[in-house]
Amino acid sequence: MENKYTKSGYEILHDPRLNKGTAFTDTERDMYGLHGLLPYQVENIEQQIVRVNEQVDHLKDPINKYVYLMQMLDNNQTLFFRTVMDNPVKYFPLIYTPTVGEACQKFGQLFRRPRGIYISIKDKDKIREILENWNVRDVRVTVVTDGGRILGLGDLGISGMGIPIGKLALYTACAGIDPDYTLPIVLDAGTNNETLLNDPLYLGLRIHRVRGKEYEDFIDEFISVITNVFPKICIQWEDFAGPDAVMILDKYREKICTFNDDIQGTAGVAAAGLISACKLSGKPITEQKFLFFGAGSAGTGIAGLLMKIMKSNGLSNEEALNRIWMFNSKGLLVNSRTDLEDYKKLFAHDHDPISDFTNAIRQLRPTAIIGVSAMGGAFNKEVIEAMSEINEAPLIFPFSNPTSHSECSAEEAYRWSSGRAIFASGSPFDTVEIDGRKFIPGQGNNVFIFPAMGLAVFATEVKRVTDEMFICAAEALAGQVTPEMMKTGLIYPPISEILNVSFNVAVKIAEYIFDNGLAEIKRPENIYEFMKNKVYYPAYS
To answer: What phi, psi does 391 have (nearest 5°)?
Structure first.
């Protein structure tokens, strides 16, 4: 057996892509000079996972579990992903929402080992040099943030790096994209968070956010360089402030391979839940009326995709628009308002102003309310009861993250609707029991969409990501909700099945890409087997 590494045994143990820890065999220990650097006992990965589970369970606070898991990712990449993939229900809330929100807030205090690429606006002329410092030449997927609006927590500057790291971990854990093809990036244009600017441990630029032309030039230069350095890359934009998110997506969606998960991913997963909810309620999507609480980029993204779906089901543009209403902090979006950004004006109606959300429900009589406001508790008892008065099975979708910013909890929705609500949330909630009945809350998390989209893009090398691909993903996801699941109130598959679900969604997207001549590679004879061969599974070689 030939030594396949040029590194010393000590270096191998400190390379997370090569390290197996106690799983190195006696033969490998001889070959790589590992004797004495490891305890005597040789273990397999299953034994290592038992130890990981015990160590995680020993920790009390989720944030400490997060720190432990991130250290494992930095130490043994294979063991990290195998652990997470074997038990997604346990580990997803720890490596991503809701725990990642606290991790971002404490980024400066928790920082240990750098991961990903940090590009500041002061380094605008050095972007190529910075990207070429990365140790992989064929990056296919990047998640990029400028920290402008992290979850529902606001402007966190470069402390938002926890989001790209977490999202890309889910690309691998949910859809099997080889982590070596992924790259987390944070663009540092400053922060308007005074607490961070005055925090001695804050690691980003200590300036207020650069806006206007200088900021747009920074984004332009970044895109120009990264698509040149990594020509097959797909850029996922994450947690930019609403106007910036819309501006970047509108400017580049037809030019490069890119999408915004807050806009299109959220839209896709919301649409999937609504498709399932329509089946459960017995009322088709063309007969639903949607009232959004929150009219930012996420809300308008969902609304835009719903319009396309309703139009594909026979409604005119005007008829579809009449079924979508929006409400924000200043009230109902109506044409008489002068404070609306351009991307919101499409969803304004000729109607008298309404400043109270409950009154809006009573006047407009929606069948579904969708929360994308990051205002925890906004769907109060009065709101849920008003929805229940006018609907036999009200659709209650509080999609805001993290859990503390959810518009209502699952128990509140079920209890205040007397168990009649069809519920899905962005954050996870435990099973609810009311008067002897058990309700299993659905989680409409983007994790059902963006990893599958990434796998399809990676496999087909498609040059553009379209809204139609997200509609395809939504329909494929909804199609995996079985009648048995619906009997328990579920409108999404359980997270425990995420690997299989993501793969099936990715296959459907890939079929759409090939069917519409969008792929940059030749159509394979068997798309299912082709996709299967693209999936990474963490195992020691």
So the answer is: -135, 135
- Percentages helix, strand, coil for the chain (3-state, rounded to 5) are 50, 10, 40
Beta bridge partners of 185: 117, 144
* E-assigned strand segments in 212-352: 234-237, 258-260, 290-293, 324-328, 331-332
Burial class (CB in 10 A: 0-12, 13-18, 19+), 332: buried
Instruction: Give one word for 21, left, alpha or beta, with left for phi > 0 and alpha for psi -120 to 50.
Output: left
Taking Cα atoms as reference points, which of 190, 189, 228, 183 lies closest to residue 206? 190
Report the side by side order of strands in the sheet with 182-188.
117-120, 182-188, 141-145, 234-237, 258-260
Q: Which two tokens stand for residue 485?
A: 């699941």
| pLDDT above 90: percentage of residues in the chain | 90
Dist. CA 256–CA 251, nearest whole Å: 10
Q: How far is Cα 157 from Cα 168, in angstroms, rounded to an integer?
A: 19
The domains located in the chain, with CATH, are 9-95 (1.20.1370.30), 104-256 (3.40.50.10380), 264-447 (3.40.50.720)
Alpha helices in 176-238 (DSSP H): 194-197, 212-229
> Is 106 a catalytic site residue?
no
Place 121 in a pLDDT band, splitting at 50, 70 and 90: very high
Radius of gyration over alpha carbons of the chain, in Å? 24
Token digits of residue 198: 């005055």
Ramachandran sector of residue 326 (left: φ over 0; alpha: ψ -120 to 50; beta: rest): beta
Contacts of 526 (CB under 8 A, 6+ apart): none
ω into residue 98 within 30 of 0, thus cis? yes
The 8-class DSSP code of residue 295 comes to -
Per the listing, tokens 């005055």 go with 198
Catalytic residue among 20, 65, 167, 534: 167
Nearest alpha-carbon partner for 512 in 498, 525, 527: 527
Name the nearest CA neighbour of 334 among 364, 304, 305, 306.
Answer: 364
Tens digit of each residue's pLDDT (9 = 90 or more) over 374-428? 899 999 999 999 999 999 999 999 999 888 899 999 999 999 999 999 999 988 8
Pairing of strands 117-120, 422-425: unpaired
Structure-token match 């990029």, residue found: 144
Q: With contact defined as beta carbons under 8 Å apart, do 176 and 503 qualify?
A: yes
Angle, CA 50 vertex, CA 171 and CA 67 arms, to 5°: 55
Residue 32 annotated among the catalytic residues of the structure? no
Q: Which of 32, 91, 96, 414 is catalytic?
A: 96
Map residue 144 onto helix, strand or coil. strand
Helix axes 450-460, 498-515, angle to 10 degrees: 50
pLDDT at 54: 98
User: CA-CA distances (angstroms) from residue 145 to 95, 149, 235, 253?
Assistant: 17, 9, 10, 17
How does strand 324-328 pair with strand 331-332? antiparallel
